[in-house]
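Minutes, project check-in
Item: structure for the 393-residue chain
Input as provided by the requester:
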Amino acid sequence: MRSVTRLDPAEILSDELLERFRERAAVHDRENTFPDEDLADLKAAGYLAILVPRDLGGSGLGLAEASALQQRLAGAAPATALAINMHLVWTGVAKVLADRGSDALRFVQEGAAAGEVFAFGISEAGNDLVLFGSGTDAAPLPDGGYAFTGTKIFTSLAPVWTQLGLHGLDTSSPDAPQLVYAFVPRSEVQADRVIVRDDWDTLGMRGTQSRTTELHGALAPADRVVRRLAPGPSPDPLVFGIFSVFELLLASVYTGIARRALDLAVATAHKRTSKKTEKAYSQDPDIRWRIAEMALAYDGLTPQLDALCRDVDALADHGGRWFSLLAGVKHRAVTVAKATVDDAVLVTGGSSYFAGNELSRLYRDVLAGLFHPSDPESAHATVATAWLGPIEE
């Protein structure tokens, strides 16, 4: 296991920087644009390489520190945090593999340190197998590379990514079927092979620009083919790495939204005054109860996130419970965040219903959490299996 650095999140994401992000977030939400300036600021702060070891040009942070940073970033600009999350997933997977003795994704670490942006091309319409199957065709090439043909959805960072990490199904090799995990570079050569639709016009999280990506024989060179695995559940560290880092960093984004909604509710309760009692709403028993409920739920998220992140870094062995713990914390973070935003809207009152109000944006942004794997049905099925065993056939 590699050592990690501990730091105060404000050392990388200062209050001043976050305030700029917050101001821009409203504009990108309104105009449905990608936060290019945010990305430039994050690059300048070394954010793309926070999970990359120091000897490769990164900050050498662990998942717990990255989680804390993502919570902080999401409190200012949820869409920016969710977009950069997908890049951090791949650098986090590279760390998981390296900690377990594999340098298969060293090129991801080196690329991130050099300013490359990695996107996450796993989601496909109707593919509820997620990591365990794919509707994208992966055709083997004579040189060991692959040509991918299919459609990926919710591809965050669509306007700016330089490398797309994806999977597809090889059905023609002698050992087929095999799931192929690889990285497709973005280049002029690939212009007709990788087509990004301008179709991101959504209820919330508009700044992520998670556009649909069409692959028409998109080429992944042999040295960017990371794994070939049999379809279905796999003990391979790559699968564990993707699932663990994806769930934990997603949970971090929505935990950050919950904290921001709680802070806004507290600030409003101190500012608003009741005509009836002539006292601040912070003195109203019903408001106090509601904010206490929000805080009680939020306070349970951060310790579990921190503990599970540290367990991944420490190579802890939770055996068959790993997937239920990871799916559970993601599900809990999303449901708590949504309930917290709902309550914050009630505390704030009618002003939050106006489109320009920050809570109005958070109310829409937080809904995206319901669509990320593990969705509520998958999370409950995973946890039920962990506690009750599989359904008998």
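Outcome recorded: The chain has a mean pLDDT of 96.
No further action items on this chain.
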